[in-house]
Amino acid sequence: MKMDSDVIIKGSRTRPNPFKLVPCEKYGNNTEAPFILNLSVEALALIDVHSHCVQTEVIGLLGGLYCSRYRQLNILTAEPCESLTAGTSDLQCEMDPVSQADAFERLTKAGYQVVGWYHSHPTFVPNPSLRDLETQAKYQQLFADGNQPFLSLILNPYSTPHQTLTKNNLVSKYKCLMLSEHISSSQNESRTPYAFNPLLVRREKLFYNLTHRLEELCSKIEGKPSTLCITDKLRGKDMPYLTKILTSLRHHFETTGLSKIESERLVDQIRAILLEHLRSKPNGK
C-alpha cells in the first residue's frame, strides 16, 4: 500500500469543538480486544523523548509486525515526522505529507509494517480529541483493505501546571487505542475509542538500537525554535527538563524488568546524548 498517494492529513476544520477530548472505553469482559498488543520500550522511549523535547505537539508513525494467526500486534519502533504546524500551536498538529511518505518508506525498507501513528498532548490528558478520532477513522479505513490493524498512540509528557511534581506525575501517561464500529451519539456521531492494556517489552540490542535512534532524533530537532533547552527548568517548577525526561524513561525501562544497574547505564548514555544536542551552547551557538 502506497502512503505517498494516500496521505492522511490530521483533522478537519469543519467539525464543531474539534479539540474536545473524548474518554476511552476499555477492552474487557464486555468487549474483547481484537488482538494482543505488545509495545517495545524502544518505541515508547523514542516517542517519550520526542514529546518531552519539543514545546509543540509532535507526530509520527509506528512500525511493527502483525501476526493474524495469533492475533498479536507488536509495536517495535517509531518514526518521527515533521509537522505542518510545528512552532505555531501546541493544540493542533498535522503531519507533513512529504515527511509522512518518507517515514513510511523508511519503515517498510527496514522490514516493518506501518501499524499506527503517534502524537503528543503536551500538557493535557492522552484522550483523543474529536479531530484525532476523525483522523484515526480514516487511517483504520485505509488499512482495512489489507486486514491490518492501525492504532493510535497518544502520549502526555507533562502534567498540567497546577499539579505537583509527585513521582507519578513525572512519568509520562500514554494510551494506545482503536475505534470500534459502534457510533456514539454522545460524541458527535463519532465511533467509540477503545484503549488497550499493552504489555511493555524489551527487544534484543536495546542499548544500541535506542541510543542510535535517539542520536538521529536529536540531530533532527536540534536548533529548531520549538525545541527545548533541556537544562532549563520546568515552568514554575524547581526541576530541569532533563531530570523529568530521565525519570520517565527510567520508569519505562524498569517496568520491562531491566535491572536498576542496567537501567542507570542506559539512562547515563541517554543523558549524554541529550546534553550533547539539546543544551544551550555558549554565546547562543
**Strand coverage percent:** 15-25%
Give me the count of strands.
9
Which sequence of SSEs, written as H and E, runs from N to C?
A: EEHEEHEHEHEEEHHH
**Named CATH topology of the largest domain:** Cytidine Deaminase, domain 2
Major β-sheet strand ordering: 1-8-7-6-5-3-4-2-9
Overall form: globular
What is the helix content? Answer: 25-40%
Query: What structural category do the secondary elements indicate?
Result: alpha/beta
Total count of domains: 2
CATH architectural category of the largest domain: 3-Layer(aba) Sandwich
Helical segment count: 7
The CATH superfamily of the largest domain is identified as: Cytidine Deaminase, domain 2
- Largest sheet composition: 9 strands, mixed
- Separation, N- and C-terminal Cα atoms: 43 Å
Radius of gyration: 18 Å
* Average pLDDT for all residues: 88
Q: Which consecutive residue ranges, at least 5 long each, have pLDDT under 50?
A: 86-90
> What is the top-level CATH class of the largest domain?
Alpha Beta
Question: What do these coordinates show?
Answer:
The chain is an alpha/beta fold and 285 residues long. It folds into two domains: 25-201, Cytidine Deaminase, domain 2; 206-284. 33% of the residues lie in helices and 21% in strands. The chain has seven helices and nine strands. Strands 1-8-7-6-5-3-4-2-9 form a nine-stranded mixed β-sheet. A hairpin with a 4-residue loop joins strand 3 (59-67) and strand 4 (72-81). Helix 1 (41-53) runs parallel beside helix 5 (206-221), helix 5 packs parallel to helix 7 (260-277) and helix 6 runs antiparallel to helix 7. The chain is globular.
